[in-house]
Structures are given as structure tokens and as C-alpha cells.
Design brief:
The protein is α/β, with parallel strands linked by helices. It folds into two domains: 167 residues, NAD(P)-binding Rossmann-like Domain (Rossmann fold), CATH 3.40.50.720; 165 residues, Dihydrodipicolinate Reductase, domain 2. 34% of the residues lie in helices and 24% in strands. The protein has 14 helices and 16 strands. The strands form two sheets. It has an eight-stranded parallel β-sheet with strand order 4-3-2-1-5-6-8-7, sandwiched between helices. Strands 9, 10, 11, 12, 13, 14, 15 and 16 form an eight-stranded mixed β-sheet that branches. α1 packs across α13 and α13 crosses α14. The longest helix is centred in the middle third of the chain and has 15 residues. The N and C termini lie far apart (47 Å). The relative contact order is 0.14.
């Protein structure tokens, strides 16, 4: 394919490095380079991968070069070669970078750490892909908001949701920095109700009635959600199961197959030889689904390091307009990354 979209990634941390790899996997995109301000092992991996490395700020370039990083240019120079930039910098840095992208005349995708107002559109591919077509800016919402939107959208689109409530237990620290600030033998509740994920989901799913509560616990292998959805009519378990099956990027796991906790699901991803053990899907415990005629109940796992990566790829297509059909983009992204609906298809449906 000759007319590939040229993509820059600014910020090569936990999200940026995954976005870069995902872009490389697409046949309609070209990664023109990455930018950062550090010279730790992650950027050295970018050099091993052969990525063109740029300094996000010119004042950091001398230190990067002195540390042996093969810097080929500045962020401004990188943007000069790009059609779109995916900003994966830490929270609030993206907002400061927006004027830089405006001056460069490139489209920009921000992450969920930035405010909705920065881009004016909060994006989850299966919910509002069409709204992002050929926009200048979009914001891929956070890992937890992405999961809530994926799981609640099939219920909301069928008119089933009267009111949704969700309790989120977030990892206490990210794995790569657990040596610095790991939480041990404690759970820390957030005192603000609703937590920010509920109002954030409402920027994606219009008219969604949701309240969220959140806290953090002493674990670092993703988050877990417990959702209680009051329905507009009795929803049978088979209906609920089918609605979730019909939605992209949701995959069932079962406790009765040994997938009893966050760590066992991540171990499954490792056994399946997923890059970095990534779980791009929302893993919903099928044998924990419940309905009492008034409400339905769900428990699901959210891998904070990986879940938003497919959304960033779809956002690139939407903003540049190279694929106008959201379902087609989702299918293309999922095929390239290996996103599935069933983790263990060889034995699916064989239980008696």
C-alpha cells in the first residue's frame, strides 16, 4: 500500500511503545518516528527496533545524545513528516503540546489523562467512530472508561439501561514502578463520588445514567470492575450473554476453567504468547453474570496497559478518514493485533 497514513508517537512510555508497535502492525499506516525526553531502557528498545527517535523538547536532546541515544531530530521535525500524532505523554503534558500540534498542522490524538474539553471528542471506537471522522483532535478515554463504555454500550444501545452503578478496584501501582510506591496490605477508597470514570463515560455514551465508585488495592496486574445495571425490563441471562458476545473487544473468561482472578487471566495472556502479556479485550467472567429480573450483574477485568491501544489505532483511521466505516476499522485493527472473542477456541463449547 503506497498511500499510508504517516503516524508520529510523542511519548514512548507504557502506552506510547504499545501504540508504536500497533501502528507498525497496520498495513495502512507508517510509523515515521517516536519522541521522548528520557534515555532509559524503553527508548533504548526503540533504538533496537530501528525507530527514528526525536527529542520531544530541544533542551533534552544533548542529554539524550550524551547517553548514547541516536536522536535524529526534534519533535517539530518529526511532526513535519506526520499526518497525525498520537500523544502518549504523561497527564497534562498533552494539553501543553496541543499548540505545538496546531502550529504543525497535524491531527492529534490525546490520552485519557487529558480533559474531555481539550479535544472536544472522547472516543471509544464501537460507540462513536463516525463522530471522529476527519476531526482535528480526539481523546481516547482512559482504560477504565474504555471498559465501561465497551461493556455498557450493548446494553444502552438496546434500551436496557435504566441506571448503571459500578465499583472499580484499581491496581495500587503500575508494574514497572512497583519498586517505588507499591501498596501493601491495604485498600484505599476514593472519597469523591462519583469517581471520574462515570462522568467520563457520559462524554462518550450520551444519556447514560451511571454512578461509579473507585478505590485502589495491593495488586498491579490490571483493574477489576463490578457493575450493577438496573434494567428497563427483565433481561434474561441468555440475552445478556448474547449482547456481550455481539460487541467487539469483549471476551468471556470462566472461573470454572481456572481463570479465577486477575493474575490467572494475565498468565493466560502470557501462555498465549501475547506481546508483553497484553489483554486488549475486556475480560468478562461469564460464570459470574447474573440477573434477578430487576438488575444484571457483571464482573470484568481491565488491563490498563493495553486496553486503549486498539482505540488509538482506530482513532488514527477516523481522524484521517482513511476508513469511514467504524466496524471495518475495528475488524482491521483487531485482525492485525490478534484481538479475539474467544481465548481458547479449540476447546470452546466442548464441556458437557
Amino acid at each position: 500500500m503506497t498511500n499510508r497514513v504517516r503516524v508520529a508517537v510523542n511519548g514512548y512510555g507504557v502506552i506510547g511503545k504499545r501504540v508504536a508497535d500497533a501502528v507498525v502492525a497496520q498495513d495502512d499506516m507508517e510509523l515515521v518516528g517516536v519522541a521522548d525526553v528520557t534515555f532509559d531502557y524503553r527508548l533504548r528498545v526503540a533504538a533496537e527496533r530501528g525507530f527514528a527517535i526525536h527529542a520531544s523538547t530541544s533542551d533534552r536532546r544533548p542529554a539524550m545524545e550524551a547517553a548514547g541515544i541516536p536522536v535524529v531530530g526534534t519533535l517539530d521535525e518529526l511532526l513535519g513528516h506526520a499526518d497525525v500524532v498520537v500523544d502518549c505523554t504523561p497527564k497534562k503534558i498533552g494539553a501543553a503540546n496541543k499548540p505545538v500540534y496546531e502550529r504543525a498542522g497535524v491531527r492529534a490524538i490525546f490520552q485519557g489523562g487529558e480533559k474531555h474539553e481539550l479535544a472536544g471528542l472522547s472516543f471509544v471506537a464501537q460507540v462513536n467512530y463516525a463522530a471522529a471522522l476527519e476531526r482535528r483532535f480526539a481523546r481516547v478515554v482512559s482504560c477504565n472508561t474504555t471498559a465501561l463504555c465497551r461493556v455498557l454500550h450493548p446494553l444502552h444501545s438496546r434500551g436496557w439501561i435504566k441506571r448503571a452503578r459500578a465499583v472499580l478496584l484499581r491496581r495500587g501501582t503500575d508494574p514497572w514502578e512497583s519498586h517505588e510506591n507499591g501498596m501493601i496490605n491495604s485498600v484505599k477508597p476514593e472519597t469523591k463520588v462519583p469517581s471520574h470514570q462515570g462522568p467520563d463515560a457520559q462524554t462518550v455514551i450520551e444519556g447514560l445514567d451511571i454512578v461509579t465508585m473507585a478505590g485502589a488495592g495491593p495488586f498491579n496486574l490490571s483493574h477489576i470492575h463490578f457493575a450493577m445495571v438496573e434494567t428497563t425490563r427483565p433481561v434474561e441471562l441468555d440475552e445478556l450473554r448474547q449482547a456481550l458476545r455481539d460487541e467487539p473487544r469483549i471476551a468471556f473468561v470462566r472461573a470454572d476453567q481456572g481463570l479465577v482472578a486477575l493474575n490467572s487471566v494475565i498468565e493466560l495472556m502470557r501462555d498465549l504468547r501475547r506481546p508483553r502479556g497484553d489483554l486488549w479485550e475486556v475480560a468478562v467472567w461469564e460464570d459470574a453474570l447474573a440477573s434477578d429480573g430487576r438488575e444484571v450483574y457483571l464482573a470484568f477485568q481491565v488491563h490498563n496497559e493495553a486496553i486503549t491501544i486498539p482505540e488509538s489505532v482506530d482513532a488514527i483511521r477516523a481522524l484521517t478518514g482513511i476508513e469511514r466505516d467504524g466496524a471495518a476499522s475495528i475488524a482491521k485493527t483487531d485482525a492485525a493485533l490478534g484481538v479475539v472473542k474467544t481465548f481458547l477456541p479449540a476447546t470452546a463449547g466442548r464441556a458437557r
